[in-house]
Design a protein that fits this description.
about 350 residues, alpha+beta, Thrombin, subunit H, Pdz3 Domain, 2 domains, six-stranded antiparallel β-barrel, 7 helices, about 20% helix, elongated
Length: about 350
């Protein structure tokens, strides 16, 4: 059995447990389960640590005093790290490489849209090439590599590259019921349809049960959101739904633009995101990123992300919630700092 198959089995056995973060068990694990889970975690990291160790010489940690602020990935154009974390006032950051050598931070360039900084490679640390690879597929198992010859975490790619800018995302304008299978044909009930939105203009009403989006059957709101989230304002989709036990098929819906989230609601959303641990203050709105369920600590952003073959996919740029960590691809990094 190869590494991919073995790791897939181990990850499947650990579903719902944040066991792959920093090689430790969360406080919520029941004491009677810890012995088994620790053994499973040890088996997991026996597989992934050697893969991460090959990349560790290209990783730096950035500290202020004894506090770990963030991490960095050494590339052929410089060291990629998280801009907002090194910009905090009152810090005196320094870089520490894989061998324990300390280096000065010199800012070479930055990009606020992606919240990334490009630092000078002042220590001539071995670098990774920003090689163009085939776009990683949905469900690809990935690792975050640390500077100490070990994996920081593992997970899967949950959404392929897309824009997180609100103005770039298609907006339907509905509130969906969280329960699945509301009708005889399954589907997702609409609890509310907002006025002057794509949904209201297409004639959708509260109580309608959405059964298909673009000929794909849907059973819960997550499936609908996954189908919509790569769409842009102006894109046209088709929806089939049930109203008063009558099936209405292939209704065309032209998506609108998402408006800014009201302050009170955004505050509540941010509070919910923090329930899984500390998140980055700059964690949304990126122009084009991969979404993953890899559960890294917020100060591990800047770490390189690899696949199971050890290919450098990109850099972790934000922990946004318990189940969302965003990654900027290596190819996109090269494009951002091309000039």
């Amino acid at each position: 059995m190869n590494n991919q198959s073995t790791l897939s089995i181990l990850l499947a056995s650990l579903v719902g447990i944040t066991i792959t973060q920093a090689q430790s068990l969360p406080e919520t694990v029941r004491s009677q389960d810890k012995v088994l889970l620790k053994q499973q975690a040890a088996n997991l990291f026996k597989i992934v640590d050697p893969i991460a160790a090959k990349i560790s010489p290209h990783v730096v940690v950035i500290k202020s005093g004894d506090k770990l602020i963030t991490m960095g990935t050494v590339t052929e154009i410089g060291i990629i790290t998280k801009l907002s974390e090194i910009n905090n006032k009152g810090l005196a950051p320094r870089m520490i490489d894989h061998n324990g050598n300390v280096h000065q931070l010199i800012l070479k360039s930055s990009n606020e849209e992606y919240d990334i900084a490009l630092l000078e490679n002042t220590g001539n640390i071995p670098s990774l090439k920003l090689t163009t690879l085939p776009q990683p597929k949905l469900g690809t198992i990935i690792l975050a590599a640390g500077a100490a010859d070990q994996a920081l975490s593992s997970g899967v790619i949950s959404v392929t590259p897309r824009s997180l800018k609100e103005t770039d995302r298609g907006f339907l304008g509905v509130v969906m019921d969280m329960d699945k299978g509301k009708g005889k044909l399954g589907g997702v009930m609409l609890n509310r349809v907002e006025d002057n939105t794509a949904a209201s203009r297409a004639g959708l009403q509260a109580g309608d049960i959405i059964t298909k989006v673009n000929d794909t059957a849907v059973t819960n709101m997550i499936e609908i959101r996954n189908l919509l989230q790569q769409k842009q304002p102006g894109d046209t989709i088709t929806m089939s739904y049930v109203r008063d036990e009558q099936v209405i098929s292939n209704v065309k819906v032209t998506l609108g633009a998402r408006e800014a989230t009201p302050g009170v609601r955004r505050s509540r959303m941010n509070s919910m995101k923090r329930m899984g641990g500390k998140v980055n203050s700059v964690g949304e709105g990126f122009p084009e990123v991969i979404q993953s369920d890899i559960q890294i600590k917020s100060n591990y952003c800047g770490a390189p992300i690899l696949d199971l073959d050890g290919n450098f996919i990109g850099v972790a740029i934000a922990r946004s919630s318990r189940i969302k960590t965003y990654i900027i691809e290596a190819e996109k990094i090269a494009e951002v700092f091309k000039n």
